[in-house]
Design brief:
Chain lengths: ~500, ~300
């Protein structure tokens, strides 16, 4: 069980190896398996051929021996039998007889080529007869490098004895060993060559994948780069087509990024337009009063009381206009967006949304619990909050209430904007919470603001959450991490 | 004279040849040579001079060594001044039968058939070995075998050379007869190898536990094939007996030719080619001999017959 687990783990490990190793390894394993099967086949065939060959040779040997032995065996002529066996022992090329003997049907040895080992007139030893099972007349003892043969002698269909022979087959076995050695060496060489070739081929095949992976990795951090033309290779190869498609994708992505940036700019300009008209309205409102005050001063300026009242009126009207203008300037002043965020800069947003608040007769609840400056770029934060506030104003019914709250909590700036609207449409909420990865909305107005917020917050490393309120309406929460060491301080 | 060249080359040829075959051939040559002594004069005066001489060789000396046979025949042909054919057969019996039936002019046979058919055969010449026309029969056993004498060999598988061989059969038969035994009863099993050299092979290989062999053959083999005789040990040597002789049929027509053959054989040592043949056979020469040399064999035969 342990072995199985270990093997499984080893197998899993092998799948974790790079292709350049895995493929040659598989080739090698395959080759070893194939060569093992082939070698086995060859050796089985070889040994079958050898055995047949041996059978034929010994058959011919025994045929010749029988023909010359039969008359001597009939006469039980010990000398002639011995003389035959002794002289024919080395007479047959290919049959290296170690010893031969002739026995009577009863098992008594008539004569042997080596009488010391097999004396005449003695019974055949079991060590020889026992080797032959049943009718087998050729028995191989590969361990001892010997073959044992037997041939019945008959005369006029009557058995008159048997020839037994011990043949040296070490030559055949040596040949088999040589073949095996040659096979093994050839297969090792082939396996190494093929595995090496596999390594080279796979490395070559995998190189484009590496190129692609490298470009994808590089594109993760920012702008994606197309693969240079000189690395693409032949136009119609698979790799060429893949690289071209990748480059087309890079172009499309980059184009979309550019479009998104342009859209963001346009949205900013659009909201600026809306703000501008609101501001014009805001400025225009007190203008009537201010002109009245000026008229009053012209006609009744000599009266101290009237003059004081008119000047006071003028001053308040101008202060209101200045606040609006200053807020607009801070928001849109070039370069101001990278300044650290001051609490007052958030508070200034009130003036920017006031025209909208007044137009819709809303109540704006404002709370800021910030200790001091935050090392955050002011621009994106203000832009996001402004968008949310304008959205909340638009969503709230006439006479409704919009709430703003900002505070720091555990190293994070948490800003909440709540309204009493009918609830945020799901697609808008999805865009808001999408970490800025959502597609930019195709049409102006519907969700473009939300997409910009999510994009800005993402750039700050923060997140957006949308939640319905129990008493009706929606709360949008922006959470942005505040870093002690930030780019703000560096700029400052 | 071709003989000189043969002498010069005879020793190396001998060394390279199959020893046993050489020996058999040499014996045949010696027998043939008996005629050669007076051949020159005889052939010119005899009407039968141009007739082919047929000379028989017993398997004791028979060899496949064709070169030695050729050399023997060449000497005889030269000495007799007529063509010579050497006739060989597997058994003593066949040669004896051919000789008795007149199909051979002379043959180198064994003392045993000479005694068996002494009424019909006459002596041509007897080889001289180690100074006398005598030899022994050896009883041999495996070199490492611890036995003291013939009685210890009871139950053996015993190798004889030929049923008609004195040294390779009759001597042992007679020795057993002295203790009232016969080979078949005394030994467990006997067989004939039809050659003295094969008796040595049979005992050395272990096929036979003991054997009866020609002492002359064993001694020469121990010089030429020491590896083979080293596997055997001489357990018992017989008394000295008449060396296997060259004989011819006792017919009037053969007498003159027999004399020629005898002269050729006896004069072998005087001729370089003949000396070469004798050297190959390890014989000193041939002597006319006397039938009395074979009395010992006759005695043995009587002994065996008295028991059978």
């Amino acid at each position: 069980m342990t072995t199985f687990t270990a093997r499984l783990r080893a197998l899993t490990l092998s799948f974790a190896l790079p292709l350049t190793i895995k493929v040659p390894l598989m080739v090698a394993v395959l080759m070893v398996a194939v060569s093992a099967i082939l070698s086995n086949q060859v050796l089985v065939r070889l040994s079958a051929t050898q055995e047949r060959h041996l059978e034929e040779l010994t058959g011919a040997y025994l045929d010749g021996l029988s023909a010359s032995l039969v008359p001597h065996v009939l006469r039980e002529d010990i000398w002639e039998i011995y003389d035959q066996l002794d002289r024919t022992r080395h007479a047959y090329v290919g049959v290296r007889a170690v010893s031969t003997l002739v026995a009577e049907p009863g098992g008594t040895i008539l004569a042997a080529s080596d009488p010391h080992a097999f004396p005449s007139q003695t019974v055949l030893p079991e060590s020889l007869v026992g080797r032959f099972e049943g009718a087998a007349n050729l028995v191989l003892d590969e361990g001892g490098g010997r073959a044992f043969i037997r041939r019945a002698l008959s005369y006029q269909d009557l058995p008159i004895g048997s020839i037994y022979g011990e043949i040296d087959i070490s030559g055949l076995l040596a040949e088999r060993r040589e073949v095996l050695l040659a096979l093994v060496l050839t297969n090792i060489a082939l396996t190494l060559v093929l595995a090496g070739a596999g390594y080279l081929v796979v490395r070559r095949m995998v190189r484009p994948v590496d190129t692609l992976a490298e470009h994808l990795e590089r594109g993760r951090g920012g702008r994606m780069e197309p693969i240079p033309e000189q690395r693409i290779g032949p136009r119609h190869s698979e790799v060429g087509r893949l690289f071209r498609r990748y480059n087309a994708l890079v172009d499309a992505v980059n184009e979309r990024e550019a479009l998104a940036a342009r859209l963001a700019d346009e949205e900013r300009m659009a909201s600026l337009g809306r703000l501008a008209s609101g501001m014009a309205h805001e400025i225009n409102n007190p203008l009537g009063g201010l002109f009245n005050a000026i008229d009053t001063l012209e006609h009744h300026g000599d009266k101290a009381e009237v003059r004081r009242g008119s000047l006071d009126l003028l001053k308040r009207g101008l202060v209101g206009i200045r606040d609006v203008v200053r807020a607009a300037l801070v928001t849109y002043k070039s370069g101001a967006s990278r300044q650290p965020l001051q609490p007052s800069e958030l508070d200034d947003l009130r003036f920017l949304v006031r025209p909208e608040v007044m137009r819709r007769q809303l109540t704006l609840m404002w709370r800021t619990d910030l200790a001091g400056d935050l090392p955050l770029p002011a621009g994106p934060v203000r832009q996001s909050v402004l968008n949310l506030l304008l959205n909340a104003c638009a969503a709230s019914p006439l006479g409704g209430r919009v709430e703003f709250a900002a505070r720091t909590r555990g190293g994070e700036l948490v800003i909440q904007v709540s309204d009493q609207g009918p609830g945020m449409p799901a697609e808008i909420a999805a865009v808001l919470q999408s970490d800025g990865r959502a597609e930019p909305p195709p049409a102006q107005g519907s969700g473009l603001g939300a997409w910009m917020v999510s994009r800005l917050v993402r750039e700050l490393g923060g997140r957006v959450a949308v939640a319905p309120r129990a008493e009706g309406g929606t709360t949008v929460t922006i959470t942005v991490p505040v870093k002690e060491e930030g780019p703000i301080r560096h700029v400052a | 004279m071709p003989g000189k060249r043969q002498v010069a080359s005879s020793e190396p040829l001998w060394r390279g040849m199959h020893p046993f075959g050489r020996r058999r051939l040499l014996a045949a040559l010696a027998a043939l040579g008996a005629m050669g002594g007076a051949s020159g004069a005889f052939s010119r005066t005899s009407a039968a001079a141009s007739r082919e001489v047929r000379f028989g060789l017993t398997p004791v000396f028979l060899s496949s060594d064709l070169e030695l046979l050729t050399r023997l025949r060449a000497y005889l042909a030269g000495a007799l001044d007529r063509p010579v054919t050497l006739v060989t057969r597997r058994t003593y019996q066949e040669i004896t039968a051919l000789l008795l039936s007149g199909q051979l002019d002379a043959a180198w046979i064994c003392g045993y058939p000479f005694i068996q058919y002494r009424e019909r055969l006459s002596l041509v010449a007897v080889p001289v070995w180690r100074g006398s026309p005598l030899y022994q029969s050896y009883l041999i056993v495996d070199h490492d075998r611890q036995v003291a004498g013939l009685p210890d060999l009871r139950g053996d598988i015993h190798a004889f050379s030929d049923p008609d061989s004195n040294s390779g059969h009759l001597v042992t038969q007679a020795a057993l007869a002295e203790i009232r035994e016969t080979p078949d009863a005394f030994f467990g099993k006997t067989f004939f190898t039809y050659s003295h050299r094969n008796v040595v092979r049979a005992v050395a290989s272990g096929l036979a536990q003991s054997g009866s062999v020609d002492g002359y053959v064993w001694e020469v083999m121990s010089e030429i094939e020491p590896a083979l005789t080293a596997g055997t040990r001489v357990l018992r040597k017989s008394e000295w007996l008449g060396f296997p002789p060259v004989a011819c049929a006792k017919t009037a027509g053969h007498r003159a030719l027999a004399d020629d053959i005898r002269r050729a054989l006896v004069a072998m040592g005087d001729d370089p080619a003949g000396r070469a043949v004798l050297e190959l056979l390890r014989l000193d020469g041939f002597t006319p001999g006397d039938a009395g040399l074979f009395d010992g064999i006759a005695h043995n035969l009587d002994l065996v017959r008295s028991l059978g």
